[in-house]
Amino acid sequence: MKLFAIFGDPVAHSRSPLMHNSVFKNLNYKACYTRVHLTDGSKLRETFFALGLSGANVTVPHKEAAYKACDEVRGFAKKVGVVNTLVNENGKLIGYNTDADGFMFAIKEFGDIKNILVLGAGGTAKALSARFIDAGIKVSVLNRSKERLAYFRELGCECFSWEDFKLKKYDLVVNTTSAGLKDEELPAPLTLIEEILYNTSFVADAIYGKVTPFLKLSQSKNITCKDGADMLLGQGVLANELFVNYELKTDDIKTHMSKSFEI
Ligand code: NDP
Asked: Which parts of the chain sit beneath pLDDT 50?
């Protein structure tokens, strides 16, 4: 029996155990997936091995610590320095990022997106912004503090903090901050958010399982919105493929993961 887990702080809200266990149970794959509340990101590696895990997901705020914990980082994660999926490969910790492709899957239904405003500058913002730039999309980033913006400037994004924000028209605004996750805060001051919402066609929030104040406000303005559920599904399917080393069919994984959303 293989053991998998999700590390995060907070982590109690995570639907990942339900999603992955639904796949393992229904496809008779001998594995179990649990959650680990980890406050100190520097303890990630030793905790992973102490628990004898075969693989793990990593959520807020440890994705950059997860990158540092790896023996080897592959694919897109290498480019962005952000890891959300860990695989134990013969005692070595291998890191991947499945968030960005999961998000691209989620916004397909919005059609041709050319111009995105990303709210936040953490691990998720890094992965998504780099993926958007790769796809030829123009990216602006707005973050509470200035310190984390250098990475985005180098990537080719227009960068702002709350004090120097210059508004444009956007096809899509994405909230990647954790504002609204365990509080009732907006990702930026109300006046800024109001202006932004008047100038966008679509809104997406990375947070799932709750209508955040940001989504609530967007809905009240009749903007087409989505929460982070489809992104969660997309990244989960890709992570599960890595966990089972592609032994299960992608469509079967997707079917059983989607069903777990009904629980
Ligand atoms: P990080 O901790 O790396 O970054 C958090 C970001 O949020 C920082 O830019 C921080 O700003 C900003 N922030 C935090 N609190 C506030 C606030 N009250 N007001 C304004 N800005 C704030 O987090 P992650 O990037 O790992 O995750 C971000 C969110 O995305 C989480 O809510 C997570 O659950 C969600 N997520 C969902 C996924 C899905 O599958 N649906 C996948 C990945 C993430 P500052 O720099 O100023 O501190």
From this structure: none
The residue whose C-alpha atom lies closest to atom 2 belonging to ligand 1 is 61
d(CA 120, CA 78): 20
Active site residue 63: yes
Q: In terms of domains, do 223 and 106 share one?
A: yes
Of residues 138, 137, 132, 162, the one with CA closest to residue 149: 162
Domain extent, residue 161, equals: 101-227
Structure tokens at 35: 């959650």
Prediction pTM value: 0.88
Q: What is the largest CA-CA distance in the chain?
A: 54
Cβ distance 73 to 67 under 8 Å? yes
Give the pLDDT confidence score for residue 23 in this predicted structure: 98
Same domain assignment for residues 78 and 153: no
Same structural domain for residues 106 and 222? yes
pLDDT for the residue numbered 187: 98
Q: Within this chain, do residues 200 and 110 fall inside the same structural domain, yes or no?
A: yes
CA of 213 to the centre of ligand 1 (A): 14
| pLDDT the model gives residue 209 | 85
Give the model's pLDDT for residue 262: 87
Between the CA of 123 and the centroid of ligand 1 the distance, in Å, is 7
pLDDT score for 38: 98
Site to substitute for ligand 1 among 11, 141, 178, most atoms within 8 A of C-beta = 178
* Closest C-alpha to 17, from 57, 48, 65, 54: 57
In this structure, what CATH number is given to the domain that contains residue 196?
Answer: 3.40.50.720
Per DSSP, the three-state class of 144 is coil
Q: What is the pLDDT of residue 105?
A: 87
Say if residue 60 is in the same domain as residue 80.
yes
